[in-house]
Amino acid sequence: MTEVFVSTDDVKVIGGTETVNVEVDFGPQGDRGNLFLVGYGHPNSANLTGIQTLDIYINIEPNDEDYLNLYQYVDQSGTKTWTGIGPLTTDKFSSIRNVNFVDGQASSNIEFKVLNIVPAGLIGALTASSFNIQCTFQNSENPVAHSIIINPITVQVATGDVTLPVGINAAEFSGSVWAGLSGTHVVHFLITVV
Questions:
Q1: What global pTM score does this model have?
Q2: I need a labelling partner for 40 at 20 to 30 A (CA). Which of 2, 76, 150, 172 fits?
Q3: CB count, 10 Å around CB of 103?
């Protein structure tokens, strides 16, 4: 046991405990905690052994429509079954880009790699209309009105990248008139899958 002597001028701690015992091996043995399992396809079609209630399964089959979905092994009215919990992937992507404008139009399309937005297994199933794109202009001194043009998904011949090309038209309110935006502006993009 630690002894403490207190005087009016200072505090001195002399000595410490000689041993510390932590008892962790008492009580009945319980079930193990839940496991995280991975496999290709739905867990009902996977050959899983030794599973227990509340185990988690992740589908890593890239060509499956439920790619990266989570499942949990639960007891439903006396029957044990895998139930879907939800996807691991997010349906949101954000990016900040410097965009050059000439007379109210972006001088070129802004290209977003579709693989940065959705898993590879979903790329062939999506079209340009599958995306909702919003943008805001950073540090604009005046109000800016804009419209976004989502062009068809394309494959870049040189790199093989699947991209979502986006165009922007924008006008700035200055004094009492609207004028087409010109120059380079920082634009924040938020892309969601609908």
A1: 0.59
A2: 76
A3: 11
